[in-house]
Specification:
Shape: globular
Distance between the termini: 23 Å
Helix content: over 70%
Strand content: under 5%
Largest sheet: none
Number of strands: 0
Oligomer: single chain
Number of helices: 10
Radius of gyration: 17 Å
């Protein structure tokens, strides 16, 4: 796994985690909570994100093999998910794949929203999980999986910091800025999705290669 692959993985994961969009949802769901409670949720959410990502890196491919799903078909399906997510981001809309109004209603009935729906599926949605599984399959060696796990821990820590100071950041970052950044991220994630679709299709139909 070279420098370019590392950067590509980080960029894809940052876009799929959609920090500003996730922050917006976090602030909406915790709007009625005191600052101390908000930060407690941020800590639990950060830990949950770390566990989910690292587990996916280490056992994601094995689960696919257990269910008889080929990486080519999973890569193609992941490309479709990313394409739909990117299209929603390009339109500055929250993707229904990651988050729906029903999630907000269900969240109000829970004592804790840190794991569900915040960590999963708002921040770590199907697109992020697909990216993690494909990366772990492309780099199955112990050293590379350890490196990917370290990158995931760094990403989770960054997301935790964003949520922990979310109330402060939200006052300085306006809604219009979030929408512009979301559109740019949407274009990038759609480009990544096209590449995944192409690679998945070639894997499914080798004659196209």
């Amino acid at each position: 796994m070279n420098y370019a692959d590392t950067v590509k993985f980080l960029v894809a994961m940052i876009i799929m985690m959609n920090p500003l969009g996730s922050l917006s949802i976090f602030l909406q769901l915790t709007d009625k909570f005191k600052l101390a409670h908000q930060r407690k949720i941020a800590i639990t959410c950060g830990l949950s994100i770390t566990v989910i990502m690292v587990l996916t890196i280490w056992i994601g491919s094995q689960l696919l093999n257990l269910m008889g799903i080929t990486i080519a078909s999973f890569r193609f399906a992941g490309g479709i998910i990313l394409l739909l997510t990117g299209l929603s981001m390009l339109q500055s809309k929250e993707s229904p794949i990651n988050h729906t109004p029903e999630d907000d209603i269900a969240a109000e009935e829970r004592n804790s929203i840190a794991v569900v729906p915040l960590a999963l599926p708002v921040i770590i949605g199907p697109g992020a999980i697909s990216t993690l599984v494909i990366a772990s399959n492309d780099y199955p060696e112990l050293m590379f999986k350890s490196w990917l796990s370290l990158l995931c821990i760094i990403l989770a820590f960054g997301m935790f910091i964003l949520l922990y100071y979310g109330a402060i950041i939200g006052r300085f970052v306006g809604e219009s800025v979030m929408k512009v950044i979301t559109r740019i991220m949407g274009m990038i994630i759609m480009a990544i999705a096209v590449g995944m679709l192409a690679n998945g299709l070639v894997g499914l139909i080798p004659a196209l290669g």
